Amino acid sequence: MVSPVARKQLEELDRKMRRRMTSAFVGLEADPFHARPGVDIRKLAGVGGKADLFRLRVGQYRAIYEVLDGKVWVSEVLGGARPIDSFEDLRVGMAPWPTRPGKEKCS
């Protein structure tokens, strides 16, 4: 599942990168927790009280996601070469969390 914010961010990418990101999202369905060739995944540190957040790297783009009830929820797609290893790295430019079915909106 891709949030409206992430969907808009994906639409802004060129076609080749959008295809690469979408393909990587499909790969997350098989195993969203472990890195493997072509899929660079890291658990973000310092989330504190929220669901575990993960970072998927594809080229110079990062997708931030969480896994709830066995489903992958992509909340943002960020560009650039800046490192994202912790929740604090995200807080500066992070959009509000999307509302998911059956979940309250987090802030």
Quickly describe the structure.
By secondary structure, this protein is of the alpha+beta class. It is 27% helix and 24% strand. The protein has a single domain (4-91), classed as RelE-like (YaeB-like fold), CATH 3.30.2310.20.
Sequence-ordered SSE layout with sheet pairings:
Elements: H1 4-11, H2 15-30, E1 40-43, E2 53-58, E3 61-68, E4 71-78, H3 87-91
Antiparallel strand pairs: 1-2, 2-3, 3-4
- Mind describing the biggest β-sheet? 4 strands, antiparallel
Radius of gyration of CA atoms, rounded to a whole number: 13 Å
CATH architectural group:
2-Layer Sandwich
Low-confidence stretches: 89-107
The structure class reads alpha+beta
Strand order of the largest sheet: 1-2-3-4
